[in-house]
């Protein structure tokens, strides 16, 4: 997998640091590229490494995000602006101070782990907890036992995790001493009102929803209790963070009225901490993020949003065909390409279907090349398993469709555009909307039929 990734990469790494767990005894390292962590650790264990002074605009790290296309983008972060943004956020948003303890339940492969497991808490002089595991193993009290044991003051998690905990015995929330905890922050996907209300009532503490992206590096929409106390409104990440001139725009570039759905955008300049470019592709940085309108120049979040009469913002989902599975953004086209990696599949449409636990789940509707492959229920089941395995092998289990339904045709307009939103609406039990441009109405009836059965 690693060798294949390095082969496909437009910018392959010069070195790869390997943690060898001894699982694959026959793994062949690539000379000059692969470095052994244990060997290097023993060699440099007691080394005195002096601080290296850098220009504030030098790159601090590159974190890849697929975003709206299948080709990953290297989000490049600077040093000085990022440090300033994180230091300010620790004080003004998270209210964490020197000598206290911070617990972000993410991992360092994601932007939350970079910003709020590693850099943010350490810049603020806080202890930080790095935990590997689920919120319910060995039991649903594991996180709260860590809060008690390490006297955690600030905690950061995701709505998906809270929805998992919501299904467990509520006694675990009362089993441990949580008196050190000031508040819980949530981000990663939209937080629904019932879950927000439940966890805030169960903890008896402020639970603050906030919204940001890999690209921003820190909160774009949030309450800022370190600046002023504002009313927590369930299901909303509240207000633009200081430094963000964030607006809701119509598709013609004009600003939306209150309670009008539009595109969440930021008028530049972007504040410190945001991406400085797409690594090695300055032109892509401009064409991807700043080409939504010719006038005004706006950074596009690619998310739909609404601002209500009180100025609270609600995030409604992506403007493109990207679905959010447990906080992971997945392009439907990427999954479609993976499904079509199976040689029996001629065509496929993948949509995100609402799921109470994960936010959304991908569901595939596929057309086979040879109808004999799905002639019996047993053959259909076998092919569905094969297709899921193909997706696992190409994209990983997170992208595996919940179901692969087989149909003889897919709903399209007469111009050949796939009616994904209509498919999604039917899969969620909603009205499919305006179908005046559909080429073959029977294709939607097929989808209704396979879902009903």
Low-pLDDT parts are: none
Strand content: 15-25%
The mean pLDDT is 90
CATH class of the largest domain: Alpha Beta
Distance between the termini: 38 Å
Question: What is the overall number of helices?
Answer: 13
**Judging from the principal axes of the Cα atoms, what is the shape?**
globular
Which oligomeric form is depicted?
single chain
What is the structural class?
Answer: alpha/beta
For the biggest sheet, the summary is: 5 strands, parallel
Going across the major beta sheet, what is the strand order? 6-5-7-8-9
The fold-level CATH name of the largest domain is Rossmann fold
Describe the structure.
With 453 residues, this protein is an alpha/beta fold. The strands form 7 sheets. The chain has a 5-stranded parallel β-sheet, sandwiched between helices. Strands 12-13-15-16 form a 4-stranded antiparallel β-sheet, with no helix packed on it. The protein has 3 domains: 2-44, no CATH class; 59-318, Rossmann fold, CATH 3.40.50.12780; 322-452, GMP Synthetase, Chain A, domain 3, CATH 3.30.300. It is globular and about 65 Å long. The protein has helices at residues 2-8, 37-44, 80-92, 111-123, 142-150, 159-166, 172-175, 193-203, 282-289, 332-339, 377-395, 420-427, 442-452; strands spanning 16-18, 34-36, 59-65, 73-78, 101-104, 127-129, 154-157, 183-186, 207-209, 221-222, 239-240, 245-249, 262-267, 277-278, 299-307, 313-318, 322-325, 328-331, 345-355, 359-368, 403-406.
